[in-house]
Amino acid sequence: MIKLKINGLNVSVEKGTTILEAAQSVGFPIPTLCHMEGLTPYGACRLCVVEIGTGDRTKLVTSCTYPAEEGLVVRTASERVLKARRMIVELLLASCPQSKTIQDIASKLHVTQQRFRQEHEDCILCGLCVRMCKEQMMAGAIGFRGRGQNRSIGTPFDIKSEVCRLCGGCIYVCPACQLRCTFTEPDKAICGGCLNLSPPCVDKDQFHDMMCYMDPCVACEIKED
Amino acid sequence: MQVIYRQKIVEEIEELKNIYGDDRSSLLPILHAMQDKYQYIPDRILQSVAHALEIHPAEVEAVASFYSFFETREKLGKYVIRLCQTVTCDMKGKHKVARQLQNELGIKFGETTKDGMFSLRYTNCLGLCDQGPAMLVNDRLFAHVTPEKTQRIIEECHRDFIRSEFPRVVPSILRKTGSLLNAETTGAEGLKNALGKKPAEVIEEIRKSNLKGRGGAGFPTAFKWQLAAEDSSETKYVVCNADEGEPGTFKDRFLLYDRTDLILDGMTIGAYAIGASQGFIYLRIEYRYMQKYLEAALEKRRQQGLLGENIAGRKGFNFDIQIRMGAGAYVCGEETALIESLEGERGEPRNRPPFPVDTGFFGRPTIVNNVETFLGAALILTKGAQWFAEHGTDKSKGTKLYSISGDCEKPGIYEFAFGTSINELLIEVGGENAKAVQIGGASGLCISSVEFDRKLSFEDLSSGGSVIIFGPDRDMLQVAKNFSNFFIEESCGQCTPCRIGNIKIREGISLLEKGKCSSSYLKELVKLSDTMRLTSKCGLGQSSGNAFTTIMEGFREEILGKALNSTEGDIS
Ligand SMILES: Cc1cc2nc3c(=O)[nH]c(=O)nc-3n(C[C@H](O)[C@H](O)[C@H](O)COP(=O)(O)O)c2cc1C
Ligand code: SF4
Ligand code: FES
Question: ipTM, 2 decimals?
């Protein structure tokens, strides 16, 4: 067992536990965006930063990737941490102001203004969909392209992927795309899957034991009619 | 119109797999080879490569689209002209050259001529800042390019001159040598001395010299090597970081060409110290003209018994070095991104911990060191730790190479002892009337004249060796803008503060240009760059606000309230 101190509280956790898991296990909330249980930690949104160390040797690290270390001193909500999180959420808001998920995080952090010009992008590149598709759905139908400001997510060569299973997993995990799957701008849809999404579960005989994670599920709503 | 037959591609890829291996790390070499052959990598080739290496097409496209030297959309011309857009070349008249190139070829940057002869591209630092404007035509480097000269170069291309075996490496200008560059050694002396000691003693010798990493971060080399040496893994790697992407740095280019054997000695010593049997030189694609030369040097060493099995007669010490080419990405100089790139992935920095010393190339302990660090190690083992530590300050031992460019009479390579002040440096290079000096390239600090008594050292002005001097008439806002564009282009785009933050900073610079930025908004931008420093994943994002912040501090008066001038972003 590894012993560490979170916000003054002594905590012991198994080796390999991340600071995020350790903090959550004792009830300290840390906002996350690009993190999801069951997917490889990615450490990209940087919202989950916490302060580690003591004296003048402190630094901010992402709790979703940083493993608990013996004797580590962690502060999950110091002034420095909150300032940084607010700035980051403002940047996210500036690029995807319409995302309900980001709005919620912002309001929890008491962000009331938005200092930067808004862009109305429809993707914050958290990479949840890419990891979901590859790691949970074992499909690998979508990936990142380009870098820097030209970074985007899509199917290879921008054509409908042969390996896409139309499972909708990418849409399910997306914190920004509520708009995307409403067919408003088909050419901006990530996988094109949502355009002809006929959820496999509708075809009950073939997929009778398929587990459903969508709640509420579009398909079930269709079926009820 | 070139027809690309799938069957033929499949056969070619199979052949390449025989050369480079069929694991993931062969992806970049294969993509390079295919691009050389077809002048671009269309979807069809990407698909076949994915199939051959048994990886998802999505991942192959992800890799190909990451690097700026790979072209996936349209076929490149027979001659690809890449003009350096980094700040020093900009100051030396890049804009005029750019205009003339467009006039001569009738195309814009980013385009290809209809006859398929020329493509025009901008690129970041080519490592010829002391002789700018610099331009790369395929693998050939041109110095001091003028509008008039562009026409001749284009003519030479038409006559297929460029393809001939010309002297390919334009040497850097060497201005001042010190103990490192003056050291006389006889063949592989340091390596032989090292092999006479135990690995732990080699590391001890390096520790005594207090050698710190020369790539910019200044991490104690002995400590890094020791961590890797202590790991019980059977397979370990030594990597020489020859990515030298920091704008204004060209000393590694010089060392690789002029002190090749000492660097290879250094790598071999590192391998002996940590117990590695495989090494890589990660050479940036912009230095491709050096590849053949370095390969010949490696081959010579194999024949001399200095690489391969039982090196220098030492039973059981086997080590060999491969050269791996980058593909145009500054961020690949960051050691974890470099390792990702070696593995055939997108060059995106990893989360730390774990560190490369225990989980590096394919999860094995790996030491990544700068070219100059290996040079230092080789000389320490030749001349002794005492000799090395003679110069410098208490905390920064030894001397260091600086690549100096910009507004000065004598740009070039200088070796200075740590502790040299900016004032002393400026006198030496003939740049006394400078108004600002950028130490450490785009990611470094901009020092204004009131601070010229600060010293080059790890404890004060630490850098990888880039020094760019700005004369009294330079527009500092344009300098900030040039750096800002550099980061927007070169950020890998993974994390929020670096990807979006840098764009916001550039937007702020545009407002300043128009004279429309309030000082309270400027304050917010400085806070933003603070957050970028604290929360970005890697050194690129962490340091990308430095130049902006220091320029705004040092030149507030010049910049605030300034109206847009008519030149289109000219620094000169
Ligand atoms: C964005 C970025 C670019 C870098 N580029 C280089 C480079 O071109 N060459 C280099 O030696 N180190 C570079 N570094 C530093 C490396 O990450 C690493 O610290 C260095 O290779 C370690 O070697 P050293 O200890 O010998 O300096 C870069 C770091 C960052 C964050
Ligand atoms: S700081 Fe920038 S370059 Fe580094 S990982 Fe984040 S986005 Fe990529
Ligand atoms: S949740 Fe940790 S970086 Fe996004």
Answer: 0.91
CATH code, residues B175-389:
3.40.50.11540
**Percent of chain A at pLDDT above 70?**
78
**CB within 8 Å: B351 and A62:** yes
* Three-class secondary structure of residue B416 per DSSP: strand
Give every CB contact of residue B303 below 8 A, 6+ residues apart in sequence.
Answer: none
Sheet holding B118-123, edge to edge: B118-123, B79-84, B135-137, B140-142
pLDDT score at A114: 82
Instruction: Give the pairing of strands B237-242 and B366-370.
Output: parallel
CA-closest residue to ligand 1 atom 20: B215
Query: Which A residues in the span 37-76 are in contact with B, Cβ-Cβ below 8 Å?
Result: 41-47, 49, 59-60, 62, 65-67
Closest atom of ligand 1 to B224 CA is: 25
Q: Tokens for B204?
A: 């001890």
Are residues A143 and B58, on separate chains, in Cβ contact within 8 Å?
Answer: yes
Phi first, then psi, for residue B4 (nearest 5°) are -105, 115
Residue A186 pLDDT grade (very low, low, confident, very high; cuts 50, 70, 90): low
For A2-108, give the CATH class: alpha beta
SS3 of residue B370 by DSSP: strand
Q: Which atom of ligand 2 is nearest to the CA of A44?
A: 6
The closest-lying atom of ligand 3 relative to the alpha carbon of residue A126 is: 4
pLDDT digits (tens, 9 = 90+) for B18-47: 999 999 999 999 999 999 999 999 999 999
Using H for helix, E for strand and C for coil, what is the string for chain A?
CEEEEECCEEEEECCCCEHHHHHHHCCCCCCCCCCCCCCCCCCCCCCCEEEECCCCCCEEEECCCCECCCCCEEECCCHHHHHHHHHHHHHHHHHCCCCHHHHHHHHHCCCCCCCCCCCCCCCCCCCHHHHHHHHHCCCCCCEEECCHHHCEEECHHHCCCCCCCCCCHHHHHCCCHHHHHHCCCHHHCCCCHHHHCCCHHHCCCCCCCCCCCCCCCHHHHHHHC
Domain at A128-224, CATH from 3.30.70, 3.30.530, 1.10.10, 3.30.420: 3.30.70
pTM of the full structure = 0.93
CATH of B79-158, one of 3.90.1150.30, 3.40.30.10, 3.20.20.70, 1.10.3720.10: 3.40.30.10
By a Cβ cutoff of 8 Å, what residues of chain B touch chain A?
43, 46-47, 50, 56-62, 65-66, 329, 331, 346, 351, 353, 488-497, 499-501, 503-504, 507, 521, 524, 527-528, 531, 534-537
Residues from chain B that touch A82, judged by Cβ atoms under 8 A, are none
Domain A2-108 and domain A128-224, same fold? Reply is no
- Nearest Cα residue to A50 out of A7, A13, A12, A2: A7
Within 8 A by CB and 6+ apart from B133, the residues are B83, B84, B89, B92, B93, B94, B97, B144, B145
Give me the phi and psi of B451, to 5 degrees please: -110, 15
Q: Which CATH architecture has domain B476-559?
A: Up-down Bundle (1.20)
Residues of B in contact with A88 (CB under 8 A): 496-497, 531, 535
Interface touch A147/B491, C-beta < 8 Å: yes
CB-CB neighbors (< 8 A) of A67 in chain B: 353
| Average of per-residue pLDDT across A67-79 | 96
B179/chain A closest Cα distance in angstroms: 35
Return the pLDDT at A185. Answer: 52
Q: How does pLDDT run across B468-494, given as a tens digit for each residue?
A: 999 999 999 999 999 999 999 999 999
CA-nearest of A136, A155, A159 to A145 is A155
